[in-house]
TrEMBL record, chain A:
CDD domains: bHLH_AtBPE_like. It is found in: Nucleus. Residues 115-161 are annotated as: Disordered. This is BHLH domain-containing protein. One of its GO terms (cellular component) is nucleus. It comes from Brassica campestris (Field mustard). The keyword Kinase does not apply.
TrEMBL record, chain B:
The keyword Protein biosynthesis does not apply. It comes from Brassica campestris. It is found in: Nucleus. Residues 5-66 form the IBH1-like N-terminal domain. SUPFAM superfamilies: HLH, helix-loop-helix DNA-binding domain. InterPro entries: bHLH_AtIBH1-like, HLH_DNA-bd_sf, IBH1-like, IBH1_N. This is IBH1-like N-terminal domain-containing protein. GO terms for cellular component: nucleus. One of its GO terms (molecular function) is protein dimerization activity. GO terms for biological process: regulation of DNA-templated transcription. Keywords: Nucleus, Transcription, Transcription regulation.
Amino acid sequence: MMMMNGEATEAELFLNCADMSVLERQRAQLNYHHLPGFFSNSSTINGGEIDDGFLASAGLDLPEIYGEVHGDARISVSPGNITNESGNSKKRKFGCVDTETKVFNEKKKMMMMDREVEVEEEEEKSKITEQSTKSIMKMKNKAKKEQNSCSNDSSKVTKDSQRTDYIHVRARRGQATDSHSIAERARREKISERMKFLQDLVPGCEKITGKAGMLDEIINYVQSLQRQVEFLSMKLATVSPRLDFNIDDIFAKEVVSAPMMNLPNSVMPPHMMVNSGYPHDMVNSGYVHFNPMQQVVTSSDPLACFNNGQSATMWDSDVQNLYSSLGV
Amino acid sequence: MQPTSSMKEEFLKKWQMGLQIYRPLIDNTSVSERRKAIKLSADVAMASLRKGTTCWSRALIQKTATEDNFLVRQMLSGIKAETLINKKLPKVMCHRKIVRRSKMILRRRQSRSAIEEVAAKARKLIKKKTQGLRNVVPGGEFMSNDVLLIQETLDYIVSLQTQVNVMRSIVDAAEAGSER
């Protein structure tokens, strides 16, 4: 019970940070229900049932952690935990769909993660044989102990376990099985998952693989966006001395619908463009769909950040075309 | 996730609302004051889209409240304004120098292998970068863990993109209008 409490707090820490990653157990060597780490509270649902449903056929196989979960489990959990605004929940759903397809690429994903993890994995690989046997032994021993102590808890996190308070973790072969390192791994995985989203969002980051490089790009991008805001507000202040942008006028202007491809050198006439990729929710008949790719040309400000802005919007249109094709 | 047109609409509406507040005062103001008005109302509009759910939006609102309390109160509906403005930001920054010094002392006692040193350097670098990111994102210093930080960054980037897109289109339209 003491063990449970200690692990409960760690699990709660996890829940309080955003998503839960429920782990898929590929399968086990023997019939253990319980593993070091976290216990799920879905015990009542599954009773003492052996998790055969999830186990592939017998044989020694590499138990694998951190498979991604079912979309439902995640979606059902997150609104319960956190009250999301539309922005956030959209993000999460997107994440669910995305990660579901990555279930079986888990290992590869882990391999492609940051340098930090690679270094650590190398360290661990070098001790694989001893550790693997050790970990197996540990798991077996713990399993027996836990079997005795908590017979009612099931370690299964299934589709039915919509309201798990604990995350059940199974350590990978050859890696430490204490709860701290498992917690750290879960946390690291979350971070890398979110970095992937950021990679999609920030233009021009597809090739950057390390955490540090990505963070650099993100910082630069955010700074450039902030600078753009400053610049645009300055421009607006100079353009309209009375701060009266006549919105109706703007809407009534003619709108050209042209698919916005990458046209870095073309001079577009300075009126609004419509991108057919945007969803058509019209507020009034004259409403214009804003387009990230605005070719601002007539201005004579030679500010550096302006150039950055322009290139950023070109990337934006690329990414945006990609997203529109996905129907986002 | 890209900025959707509904987000842009909302932002535009709120921003216009904010600018309305400035309009009666506008006659003899300088360019810089106008710029400030534009930017502040745009910031508050962007932050209010999130309705107080994200850390960065709260921090941004509090920041602009220090510059123009009146604007913020007007732009946000009454109760929310009070709570958001008066709410204390969650965590106090720790004294980094003290923490750093004590960490250095601890470190000196450890003996390290070559592999560990490399890993430690990589970790240090990443920590520096995350600190840089915290400086850029509003309210970053108050985000306790990295996961939250990156999540907030995601949301912040999307909102910034919305803001930039809307402002840019307004500028273009205003320019086009003034040309004619």
